[in-house]
């Protein structure tokens, strides 16, 4: 059987390669010529453990071909981005990439073809597209949300349970046949609108949980409690699982998807509030910086930013809270230098560790990279000697604070009022 995967990003490329390695003939399609060229050369712009080997294996086997236009196939899987756009202060899912993907496959569609959408979309989108396409042709359609965690994509693609929502039972069954070729987890069938809502609920649950942790962090600062210790102890309860506070929620999923629920329902009050709270965290972090600078009357301050990836151990900077923090600091006349051992390109210049901390006043840790945990005492001492003022603000509780304090740093931890 032949499958056409539209969109070769974080989800489409691993999925296409996986299917090609499991007996399907796969055509991977992306409108970006440069991306196609890179995939062919094995020079991927996505850094994900194991991905390069998987892709080159699929291409060398002859089962995966990549190009810029679709072809006739038995099934089409759409994995294009669905960002949020703002219209009159209201969030709206930008479905333009989905629509152009659908238009691009429309001329090739034949009776009994299956179309699967994996991109995150507002409820009822799949049904609407199904109605639009079913103009006399017998098309099958299903919504099968991706659920993989960046950094663990290959493992989770195989191991996670999957939800498949068909516009009818036959569609769901046909989609199940495809996914069961490589998924070891359970596969659950439902209707397409339920599956769309399930996807949004998963990411919204996480966003609201993080917002709660962030609110706890602010409150703990007021009452001289360490929120990290408090959360750790609360989580000893068998039915409590509070996530970690931090500088805000980034990435292209959790910081975006809850808006698609806000878009469709006035009842989404808690969801909107959580989103706004998480979006406000970068400014809360900047206030912590301003407070330290003011307290010491530091003139022409320089802040050394540690980490601009949206989360630890990835190179992705999309929707990173770091961007808002940098903008806010620089708009108030604070100069910033940026160090991130994982990130290769960013809107602002990246520097080496030494350059970044030289003559700095504050180290502001924004990302929980493993590397930051592993600084040795000699390295911390070297950093100490290069800096003008010796302040550290850790928004992730990732540094070994005892070691930094021992060297002589003043360490402020987000959410620690003690
Ligand atoms: N974060 C915190 N505190 C925490 C956990 C995360 O502040 O305790 C922050 C992270 O630093 C990051 C953001 O939240 O900025 C999101 O990171 P994440 O690791 O929670 O999630 P993503 O966006 O990398 O991937 C999520 C996953 N969804 C869930 O876990 C429910 C993944 O399984 C989805 O496939 C993915 O969204 C997606 O594509 O929808």
UniProtKB/TrEMBL annotation:
<comment type="similarity">
    <text>Belongs to the UDP-glucose/GDP-mannose dehydrogenase family.</text>
</comment>
<dbReference type="Pfam" id="PF00984">
    <property type="entry name" value="UDPG_MGDP_dh"/>
</dbReference>
<dbReference type="GO" id="GO:0000271">
    <property type="term" value="P:polysaccharide biosynthetic process"/>
</dbReference>
<dbReference type="InterPro" id="IPR001732">
    <property type="entry name" value="UDP-Glc/GDP-Man_DH_N"/>
</dbReference>
<dbReference type="Pfam" id="PF03721">
    <property type="entry name" value="UDPG_MGDP_dh_N"/>
</dbReference>
<dbReference type="InterPro" id="IPR028359">
    <property type="entry name" value="UDP_ManNAc/GlcNAc_DH"/>
</dbReference>
<dbReference type="InterPro" id="IPR036220">
    <property type="entry name" value="UDP-Glc/GDP-Man_DH_C_sf"/>
</dbReference>
<protein>
    <recommendedName>
        <fullName>UDP-N-acetyl-D-mannosamine dehydrogenase</fullName>
        <ecNumber>1.1.1.336</ecNumber>
    </recommendedName>
</protein>
<keyword id="KW-0560">Oxidoreductase</keyword>
<dbReference type="GO" id="GO:0051287">
    <property type="term" value="F:NAD binding"/>
</dbReference>
<keyword id="KW-0812">Transmembrane</keyword>
<dbReference type="InterPro" id="IPR014026">
    <property type="entry name" value="UDP-Glc/GDP-Man_DH_dimer"/>
</dbReference>
<dbReference type="GO" id="GO:0089714">
    <property type="term" value="F:UDP-N-acetyl-D-mannosamine dehydrogenase activity"/>
</dbReference>
<dbReference type="InterPro" id="IPR036291">
    <property type="entry name" value="NAD(P)-bd_dom_sf"/>
</dbReference>
<keyword id="KW-0472">Membrane</keyword>
<dbReference type="InterPro" id="IPR017476">
    <property type="entry name" value="UDP-Glc/GDP-Man"/>
</dbReference>
<feature type="domain" description="UDP-glucose/GDP-mannose dehydrogenase C-terminal">
    <location>
        <begin position="304"/>
        <end position="401"/>
    </location>
</feature>
<comment type="subunit">
    <text>Homotetramer; probably dimer of dimers.</text>
</comment>
<dbReference type="InterPro" id="IPR008927">
    <property type="entry name" value="6-PGluconate_DH-like_C_sf"/>
</dbReference>
<dbReference type="GO" id="GO:0016628">
    <property type="term" value="F:oxidoreductase activity, acting on the CH-CH group of donors, NAD or NADP as acceptor"/>
</dbReference>
<keyword id="KW-1133">Transmembrane helix</keyword>
<feature type="transmembrane region" description="Helical">
    <location>
        <begin position="3"/>
        <end position="27"/>
    </location>
</feature>
<keyword id="KW-0520">NAD</keyword>
<dbReference type="InterPro" id="IPR014027">
    <property type="entry name" value="UDP-Glc/GDP-Man_DH_C"/>
</dbReference>
<dbReference type="Pfam" id="PF03720">
    <property type="entry name" value="UDPG_MGDP_dh_C"/>
</dbReference>
